[in-house]
Amino acid sequence: MRPLEIFRTTSFRLALAFLLLFGAAAALLFVFVDWQMHDFLDRRSDEWLQREMQSIQRLPVAEITTRLTLRAKDGPSSERPFSLFDDKRQLIAGNAVAFPLEPEFEIPFDFANRASARTEHYRGLLHRLPDGGALLIAQSLQEQREFREMLENATLFASLATALLGLFGAGGIGLASMKRLDAISDAATRIMKGDLKQRLPTGRAGGDIDRLATVVNHMLDEIERLMHEVKGVCDSIAHDMRTPLTRLLASLERARRRATSVEDYSQAVEESLEEVQGILKTFSALLRISEVEDGLRRSGFVELDLKTIVRDAVEFFEPAAEERGVALNLLDGGPKPATALGDPSLIFEAIANLIDNAIKFTSEGGSATVRIENGQKDIVVSVEDTGIGIRPEDAEAVLRRFYRAERSRHAPGNGLGLSLVSAIARLHDTKLEIGTPATGTNVRLTFASTG
After folding, report:
1. CATH number of the domain to which 272 belongs
2. DSSP track, 37-86
3. 203 found inside a domain
4. Exposed (0-12), middle (13-18) or buried (19+): which is 401, by Cβ within 10 Å?
5. How far apart, in whole angstroms, are the C-alpha atoms of residue 233 and residue 300?
6. How many structural domains comprise the chain?
7. What domain range is 143 assigned to?
8. 214 lies in a domain?
9. Burial (CB count within 10 angstroms: exposed 0-12, middle 13-18, buried 19+), residue 127
10. CB 48 within 8 A of CB 32
11. How far is the C-alpha of 170 from the C-alpha of 404, rounded, in Å?
């Protein structure tokens, strides 16, 4: 980003907006303080004027003239002048102050004295005398004006300093934001160019951008996982489909070259149909996993009893277990229901896959146990068997599509059963754990309880 683009950043604009709001609030505060101060000083002056006027207005005019003459002889007072005027508004005694141009009797008012070399401003009080004359008592407003001027200058200086500091602060915030956005943009560019290992930078402050970057990084983790899965699926499809397609092609070539009777052709067709059905079964399982991972079925979640679903799955596989000579046991923890939120058919399918694997990879005379542990916050459904087991190093790999451990390569299957269980668990936000005890395998599904 170019330096001028700092002014376009959201951080700079927010900082500038807050600066303007603060400035407006400060201006309103200054106006209020100035108004209150002016009102307070006026009231103080009015109180003094009223006291002085009450003490002198009761005296005879002659005594007032004498007092003001003596007061003027003591020295001219420009701070608090006292003046006596005749009925023609001519000065009789007291300080040399011109009679106000717009006089208001018995009410304090502001006026300007133009009798001296410079215009001075006063707040005065006029009293009409019985002989038609007027008595004026005033107080200079010069100190008040100087104080207000100093306050205005200080406020103006503080406002300018605040504005400059605010602009510099907004620029600094905008620059920091711009650097963060540059780093994020660079990382995003590298990701778009194919470097899926890149992640958006996050800071320690945990601000809004950091939270957004963290969410995006989680999304990138999921995208990277899906990309690796897609690549692995493509490789696995190419690898796993090559063998049945090769057998299919060899069977058809053999039938074309060697078959001499209807029975020979019929046998070749039967073998080809078996291979095609196996291929279709594999692709159906892939489509089923993709459907589950799409997440659209989440909208159809309902509250269900896991015990009912597990009992149905166990009853469904009891004949297969009996035929293979494997003891299939159910420990459901009592009559209390184990309620959770989910899709009943998908959960049944996941548990059925686990039971099917337990029976398939357990030798005759072994056992498979399905257990339900109903806790306060979660429900655990586990399937444990005494079969060939899974090596610890294969515990995560078996969840990948088409992956088959060395111990299970002799058994029929396409390596997609646990991948489907994993997809269903992710859809339900369920924790999937594969234990590797000394004998057999223990697979646990932990659901959030709604009971």
Report:
1. 1.10.287
2. HHHHHHHHHHHHHHHHHHHHTTS-HHHHHHHHHHHHHH---SSS-EEEE-
3. no
4. buried
5. 28
6. 3
7. 1-198
8. yes
9. middle
10. no
11. 59
Residues 355 and 358: their CA atoms lie apart, in Å, by 5
**Which pairing describes strands 327-331 and 367-374: parallel, antiparallel, or unpaired?**
parallel
Residue type, 154: A
* Strands 442-448 vs 431-435: parallel, antiparallel or unpaired: antiparallel
Please name the residues in contact with 420: beta carbons below 8 A apart, sequence gap of 6 or more. 285, 288, 289, 292, 349, 350, 353
Q: How many CB atoms lie within 10 A of CB 66?
A: 13
Query: Over the range 297-308, which residues count as b (16 or more CB within 10 Å of their CB) and which as e?
Result: beeeeeebebbe
For residues 229 and 239, the answer to whether their CB atoms sit within 8 Å is: no
Question: Cα–Cα distances in Å, from 245 out to 78, 215, 275, 276?
Answer: 118, 43, 8, 8
> What gap in Å lies between CA 349 and CA 389, rounded to an integer?
21
Residue 328 included in any domain: yes
- Angstrom distance (rounded) from CA 219 to CA 232: 20
Rounded CA-CA distance 2/183 in Å is 14
C-alpha span between 361 and 381 (Å, rounded): 19
Does 213 lie in the same domain as 188? no
Going residue by residue through the chain (451 aa), what tens digit of pLDDT does each one get?
555 666 666 777 777 888 888 888 888 888 888 888 888 888 888 999 999 898 888 888 888 888 888 887 776 567 888 989 988 888 888 888 888 888 888 899 988 887 666 788 889 999 998 888 899 999 888 888 888 888 888 888 888 888 888 777 777 777 777 777 778 788 888 888 877 788 878 776 666 777 888 888 888 888 877 777 676 666 666 666 676 777 778 777 877 777 677 777 787 788 788 777 777 776 666 666 666 666 556 666 888 888 999 999 999 999 999 999 999 999 887 778 888 888 888 889 889 989 988 898 888 899 999 999 888 889 999 999 988 887 777 767 677 766 655 555 455 555 677 888 888 888 888 898 888 777 888 899 999 888 7
Whole-model pTM?
0.47
